Amino acid sequence: MTDREILKDRIAGAIAGMVLGDALGVPGELWPREKVRDRYGWIDTFLDGAEDNIVACYFKAGHYTDDSAQAFVVLEALLEAGTVPPVRVLADRLIDWVKSMNGFEINLLGPSSKASLLAHSRGEDATPYTKQSLTNGAAMRIAPVGCLVAYDETEKLAETVRRVSVVTHATDVAISGAAMVAQAVASAVAGRSWDEIVDDMNRIHPVAAAKGEPTWAASIRTRFDAFRTLYAAREWKDADEASRFIYDFLGTGTMTSESVTAALAVAWVCRDAKEAAIMCANMGGDTDTMGAMACAICGAKAGLSGLPADWIEYLEKTNDLDFRALAERIVAARKTFTLDAAEVPNA
After folding, report:
1. Required co-factor (predicted)?
2. Does a structural domain hold residue 59?
3. Annotated binding site
């Protein structure tokens, strides 16, 4: 393949991976690990959300959730504008999507996103909510940013993440967590090694954290580094034992400091989108969100050509998607995507 074809393949892999991990993670979303096992045994195929799961009940087998849906809303806004649109424009785009899903009435949105978007919809100041947002709503939808901005443009990438995130999440932990996911995707798209991807994430973390409202939340970089040290020091019987360690040690809840760190850990351990999706689906906790983030990274590393063809065909048919066509648009947009230099520190 030519360099352009490789770039397109990796970007398509990132978007497809995001959808794959999101959709496979539907059934056990926000259930404890033991409940997922008791109900499903082992999830390795796409299933309907259970009627008694108050979040997953809205989704049928193979359909992506609000994670990928918001990512696509953001991506379309970025592609159309050639930059990050003003907060009001992004807010209106997200609000239109929420209303189309009756999302303010049903249990579709996370607490931070719901509170801030409701404020935007009423024409109120949303910052009282965005400056307290510790949940993973910014990180779950950020993978497309890693497809648009080159891995070595640290300030541009961090600032793009900030501008996309502050619509609903403006804290140091939310922005730095989202930036680490975007960086991992961008570095994987560039063909960086796994060790280099970690170095790149560690580099962007303080840059992005400084752009957010200071909080008491734990550092994702520190927690991920601690996990890798402990993981390397032990011998693991199998992937499920490693999964249990992630669940117990890092946590898999909706807080950015838990689920983003866990997603990075899954990507690091599995290094394969299908394996990462299955691990997240059976993990317990915010299974679809972790799957979307971890598999976007793994998908970018493998490229669409490295993902299971039958699953990709099924996801495209089920969700009316064309990952290659979407990647073609992103590749074209990378050449001209820019930020207003006057608003970018140190530009």
Report:
1. Mg(2+)
2. yes
3. 65-67, 286, 288-289
